[in-house]
Amino acid sequence: MAAMAHVHSTLKCPKLPSHYQLPSKSSIPRKLFLLHKTIQTKQTYTTITCSAANKPSSPTEISSTAKIRSEVLTPFRSVRMFFYLAFIASASLGGIIATTQLIAAVTVHNQAMDTIEILKGLGIDLGAVSIFAFLYSRENNAKNAQIARLSREENLSNLKLRVDEKRTISVNSLRGIARLVVVAGPGSFIMEAFERSKPFTEGLIERGVIVVPFATDGNLPKFEVEGSEESGVGSEKNKRLWQLVPVNASEWSRWLDEQKKLANVSPESPVYISLRLDGRVRGSGLGYPPWNALVAQLPPVKGMWSGLFDGFDGRV
Question: Which pTM was predicted?
Answer without folding.
Answer: 0.61
